[in-house]
Amino acid sequence: MKLTSRGRFAPSPSGPLHFGSLVAAVGSYLDARAQGGEWLVRMEDVDTPRNVPGAADSILKTLALFGFEWDGPVLYQSTRSEDYAAALEQLKSAGLAYGCACSRKEIADSATRPAVDGGLAYPGSCRAGLAAGRAVRAWRLLVNDDEIAFDDRVQGRVAQRLERDVGDFVLRRADGLFAYQLAVVVDDEFQGISSIVRGADLLASTPRQIWLQRCLNFATPTYAHLPVAANSAGEKLSKQTRAAPLRPEAAAGELVQALRFLGQRVPAELARAPVAEVWAWAREGWSFAAVPRQPAIVVPA
């Protein structure tokens, strides 16, 4: 069968998978399979201080126990530093990246507006070069005030003006680690990802990634940002909000719950069926059109 899509699931090994992770995995997996495509797993372990020993192996084991089948070997970002460095050098050579000496406090003191992701929009303090005696702490990507817009398959049209809404953003951090935005763009191109299905918590990052793709002459995938699972306080389920880990012994029931969260009309009896039967129904019955068009849904406790 000719492949029409290549999707991916990219967890961070900062703890065990939880229900919110399962929703993203199920949505991306079924979307790829429904299009006759491949589904890859990438371990986004570039932010090494956040990695928990053993978490990557635990995540892969959990995915297997829940019946996920991925194509090809797992890609670990921690093995990809040379590729990220090459991309950064390409941007430097093109005059699109510059060294920044600003500390967090200096940015907080000089920023005049909030960023779309809840932080502060970088005011461009180091665009014109560093003052005497100042050393490079981080590397940033130049942006402009052009509108970056895309049609999300779930959330609709999204548009940002990066200079106003974000500012020049970090490619390599002050601690020497490559930033998520650079790593994810380089890896999506490397793996030939054509369709990205992930949580709506990453929606605000997408215009930055599209701009970076253009700067590096990379292809731009299609995007679909699924509603995130939230607790009763409206917080996204995450390791930080102490979301309960997935229970492989209850895999069928949790898969059914994830499918229902995604708007699928799953027969109640499947919650007690073998995992293989849940997947058999899901592959036949999957409807992307049924996915709720909203950024978050509260999951009953």
SSE string, helices as H and strands as E: EHEHEHEHEEEHEHEHEEHHE
CATH class of the largest domain: Alpha Beta
Q: How many separate structural domains?
A: 2
At CATH level 3, the topology of the largest domain is: Rossmann fold
Strand order in space, largest sheet:
1-2-3
Question: How many individual β-strands?
Answer: 12
Overall average pLDDT: 94
CATH superfamily of the largest domain: HUPs
Task: Describe the protein's topology.
Elements: E1 6-9, H1 19-34, E2 38-43, H2 55-65, E3 75-76, H3 81-93, E4 97-100, H4 104-110, E5 138-141, E6 147-152, E7 156-161, H5 162-165, E8 169-172, H6 180-190, E9 195-199, H7 206-215, E10 222-226, E11 228-230, H8 251-261, H9 275-285, E12 296-298
Parallel strand pairs: 1-2, 2-3, 9-10, 11-12
Antiparallel strand pairs: 4-5, 5-8, 6-7
Structural account:
The protein has helices at 19-34, 55-65, 81-93, 104-110, 162-165, 180-190, 206-215, 251-261, 275-285; strands spanning 6-9, 38-43, 75-76, 97-100, 138-141, 147-152, 156-161, 169-172, 195-199, 222-226, 228-230, 296-298. The strands form 5 sheets. It has a 3-stranded parallel β-sheet with strand order 1-2-3, covered by helices on one side. α1 crosses α8 (251-261) and α6 crosses α7 (206-215). The mean pLDDT is 94. By secondary structure, the protein is α/β, with parallel strands linked by helices. It has 2 domains: 6-80 and 221-298, HUPs (Rossmann fold, 3-Layer(aba) Sandwich); 81-180, Rossmann fold (3-Layer(aba) Sandwich), CATH 3.40.50.620.
